[in-house]
Automatic annotation (TrEMBL):
CDD domains xref list: HATPase_UhpB-NarQ-NarX-like
Protein name in UniProt: ATP-binding protein
Membrane topology recorded in Swiss-Prot or TrEMBL: Multi-pass membrane protein
Alphabetized GO MF terms: ATP binding
A Pfam family matched in the record: HATPase_c
InterPro entries, sorted: HATPase_C_sf, HATPase_dom, His_kinase_dom, Sensor_HK_TwoCompSys, Sig_transdc_His_kin_sub3_dim/P
Span of domain Histidine kinase: 238-328
Highest taxon above the source species: Bacteria
Organism per entry: Kibdelosporangium philippinense
Major localization class: membrane
UniProt-annotated location(s): Cell membrane
Amino acid sequence: MTTLESHIVDDTAWLEQAIRQAGAILDEIKCVDLSVETTPSVSDFLPDQLSSEIGETRASHGVHPAESLRAATILFDIVLRELHLSDHADVELTVALSRALHRAIMRRIGVASVSYASLLLEKVHSSHLAERHRMARELHDRAAHAIGVGLQNLQLHDIYVGGQPELSARKLETARVALGEALHTVRALSAELGSALGADRLEVALRKYLAISVSPAIKVKFTVAGDDGVVPAPFAEELYLVLREAVRNSLLHGDPGQIEIAVDIVDGHFNGVVRDDGTGFDVTRVLREGSGVGLTSMRERVELLGGSLKVVSGNTGTVVSVWVHLPGGPS
């Protein structure tokens, strides 16, 4: 008996999909005229509902197409074995059957892969769109508001400067603080907009962001173990955005006194942890209410890489953990 260690067989719904797909493949083989040799055509790759559904389902749950290929390979072996083809079987019939089975399987793999990729591209687009909307809100709600307060107090300073010098001085100081906050916000957003790593590696990019965005009043501890040069550029970019978002959320909502960022790259795996000693939040409630746009974006980015994200938060602070298996690394 063949045993398949796969996420597909671990989930009842996915396993049911796989069984339906296997049945559809066998039904197709029954109708094939094995005496007629055919070549693939465009119609062979037209989408079917079940294959598209499988591709979308596995993409939305972070199941890589490689799992489908593994399952397909085992199905191919099982079908040929169950047909009891012996050494004395008709060679031409065996070859024709093998080709028909391979064609039926690969057509469905192709359709599912297209659906898989399409859903991932849609997620990437949505994630980038949400990021732009967030930055627009930051500019409007924080930078523009602070500039407005500063300008208003400068106007009041002009009014009071002649007859009420003490009040005028307070208005000038208020304007200075407000414009300083606006400048800090604009600089932080500028650093985020320049998020592409470019020639920088992950560690360098994160250090630059921390230097610009974190107040000197907050203690920062950042460590990297392993060679971040082994992280492929597309992975490094997404992982940078995830860790940056974890730090940004801590600064905006956690009121921390200390933030620790630890990156560990070993044996083809990336482990990143962002820990703070802030006020924390109710993770379940935030996800249920849909108010944690940043948290959702982080989770989607990690899932696109085939990894996992864990967030634990409470009165003693928040811990965000990221795990990703890097391409080319040992399984």
